Structure formats: structure tokens, C-alpha cells
Amino acid sequence: MSPKTKVSLVRHLCVSLWMLTLCCCYAFTQNDYSEALTKSILFFEGQRSGKLPPNQRLAWRGDSALSDGSSYHVDLVGGYYDAGDNVKFGLPMAFTTTLLSWSVIEFGNLMGKEIENARGAVRWSADYLLKASASTPNTLYVQVGDPNMDHRCWERPEDMDTPRNVYKVSTQNPGSDVAAETAAALAAASIVFKESDPSYSAKLLQTSMKVFDFADQYRGSYSDSLGSVVCPFYCSYSGYHDELLWGASWIHRASQNNSYLMYIQSNGHTLGADEDDYSFSWDDKRVGTKVLLSKGFLDDKVEEFQLYKVHSDNYICSLIPGSPGFQAQYTSGGLLYKGSESNLQYVTSTALILLTYAKYLSSNGRVAVSCGTSSVTSENLIALAKKQVDYILGQNPAKMSYMVGFGERYSKHVHHRGSSLPSVHTHPDRVNCNDGFQYLYSGSPNPNILEGAILGGPDNRDGFSDNRNNYQQSEPATYINAPFVGALAFFAATPMAH
Ligand SMILES: *[C@@H]1O[C@H](CO)[C@@H](O)[C@H](O)[C@H]1NC(C)=O
Fold this sequence. Notes:
Pfam families: Glyco_hydro_9. The chain is mainly α and 498 residues long. The protein contains 18 helices and 5 strands. Helix 2 runs parallel beside helix 4. It is globular and about 65 Å long.
């Protein structure tokens, strides 16, 4: 045996053994994943801002922020609070909408009756994004609420009295990052509603194109003009190039309009097409764009998109120990680990990416990714996604479910104002700004269960401290849940070998 063959054999064995350990401990049934799917969508009802509809299921919430935008003569009622506070941040709200839509686009046909609830969750923010983008030409409203003031209080959204300042980007103060993400969200949502509500879908797509045009023509980062209220919360650290390419890619997917194909071809190289990068989040869209455009190459035979398949493969190899490009970090319990703050956002986005790429690869009959001399199959990608999903749902060293309301043990001290304060229905008297803090610091469990919320999650030693003030671990966020919805739909509908 030549040394080279030996190395490749060993490497292959390592990859196979590693994959084997990922799928040895089957415990959750398809029913469990179905239950988790239902709850993962229900969570979005807990984040709703605005007038709640009669069919609101998460009953402890009430109407809130009913005059958002009014002092600026614009209707900005609705949308989602991003996490445990009461600010409506445009960049993560748009990204949430894009990923929730992506979940529905790829795996909605596996959702059964939950598809209605999933579409409802997309529509809740798509309606808001339409208001935020369509009211004034070349203007996009990107935030309601002053986060510094909001964070000085611990108040239920239903009786908050902090300033609901409105922030926008315009031709003079551009925000290509937030605008192109909004365009991506509107385009992705237009695919969700293409059959069920064609006129709404058309409106979403037309608005998306206008917002993209604004994002592209008036270039700049919203962090430059709005830094004092978007940073450090949702500062655009990665700049706006990634969002421009992502936005164009979603409009291309939604419209199949050649202008966007040409845009991607002529601008891709300057907008990050050739860069490898390894995390996919509300800030950085490069990995998602590559996988999204790979479909164009794999399924629709757009030769120009082969480049994106190559970089998607590089990304996959970066996750597989023993691969030449391996660079991911896993905890000893097997969790993908990127950072101490809301780490599970990277895990859920990676799970959606893995399952989506597995789908694109297998629908093409081209089943394997080459990582050096080893080949990684769709089944391997699914096994890795399953390991991450199962970990989140409770198969982990701490024996803790990181989905609220799911399983035997889950966090009782979620960092979330509404969940930790008594409901307006049981305690109608106002809880003032400072009076709320006793609930933040209290050791008592949250009175209201934020069903389905995925939290920031454990540290790099698989440890979790169920402490309400430990927001890095105990705070939920809409963009943690959004990609998880698609992953759960896949496992709820797919029988797994033991
Ligand atoms: C394609 O997109 C371009 C740019 O937005 C637009 O001007 C054109 O009308 C679109 N074509 C069709 C057929 O929708």
C-alpha cells in the first residue's frame, strides 16, 4: 500500500467512524420532531408586536406598540420583537423572514397541517416589511425603538413606555445591508405565497425588486449613519456586499428574471463569491448565498453558478473532521461551537444549510461532496444535521432541552421580558420600567412559557446555567428558530434508520 493510499484510507475511516458516532444513539421519534416543529412555529406568536389576531394561540400575550410609526406619520405597527427585549430591529427581522421562508420553500411540503401556521409566521413579518419599504420611495424604515432606552427597563411589551423612535435609511444615509436583506426576505416570502396567495406574492416580489434597486444604487452600510442605535446590537460587521449578492440571488430564485442572473455574474466576484467563510448568521450571508446558488447549478444547470457549488463544498468540508479544509469546532458532546453568545443560532442555521444542500445534491443524483480524498454523502450531511438537532432537543451531556416547553428538562428562566413578567391578563396593572427588574433577578421560574423558543444554548463545555440574567445562554431570538423550523419539518417527515 502506498503511503498516499494509506493516508486516504485512514482519513476515510476517521470520517466514517465519526459519522457513525453521530448516528449511534437514536432516541427521538418522528412524533417528537412533529411536536418540536409545532412548538418552533408557535414561538413566533410570542414575539408578535402589534394587534394580535383572534386566532392567536399563545394566550398570555396581548396587543402592544399599536402606535409605532405614528409620530413619524408612517404605519409601522406589527412585526416581531427580535429576542428578549421590545425593539423591532430591521436587519434580524428581515433575516428571520428570509430563513423562515427558506424553511418553508425547501421543507414546507413535509409540514402537514403546520404549513398554515408556518405561512402565518412568514406573513406576520412580511406584512411589516412591506409597510416599512413601500410607504416612501427610496426610504426604508429599519428600526422602531431606542435599544439603549429599552434595555434600561424590564417591561412587558404590552405596557412599555420607552421611546418608540423610528430609524430609516435613505439615499443620503444608505443602508445596503439592511435594504438588501429586506429585499431577500420579500423575495423569499413571495415564493412561499406563490400558489396560496398569488397577488400577495406578486406584491412582495415587486416591492423586493424596488428595495433591491435602492440597496444597490445607494451603497453604504447602515452602521455608518445609525451606529448609535444599531451597534453593537446588530451592527453590520460583515459590511453590505454579502447582502447584495444574497438579495440578488433570492430575487433570481423567485423571479427567474435574467437581469438578476446577469447581476450575479457581473458583480459576484466583487461581492464575495470567491471567499470561503464559515459562519452563517444575521450578519454574514455568504455561506447561504453559495448554497442557494448551487441549486441553480445542480438543478437548473446554470453553468455560471458552478463556482458557488465549489465554495459550498468547501464549506461542507470545513465541518467534517479529517477533511483538508476542516476548521469547525465541536464540544465534546458534539455540538458545533462558534462563540459564547447565542451559539445555537449558528447550529440551527447550519442544520438548515446541511439539509438543504443534501436535498440539492440528491435531487441531482450527484450524491457526494469530495473533501480531499474522502467523499461525504447526502446521508452524512443529514446525520450531522440530526446530531445537532438532537443535541438541541435534549441529547446532550447536560440532558437539557434547549427548546422551551419541549422534553423533561428545559430552561425555566428564559431571558425574555414578556415571559418572565406576569401576563397582562392575570396582572393588568402596569409594571413600571424599574419595577420589572425584580422579575429579571428573581430565582422564580418564568410565569409564562415561551413555547418553542430555542435559547442561546450551552457553553463550549456543554454546560448551561439556567439564569435569567445570563442572556448569552438563556435568551431566545427569532433567527435562532427560523432555520430550525425547516430542519424539524425534515426530521418529522423522514423515517431514520437506527
Ligand atoms: C426583470 O428585472 C428588471 C430589473 O428589476 C426589470 O426592469 C424587468 O422589468 C424585469 N423583467 C420582467 C419580465 O419582469
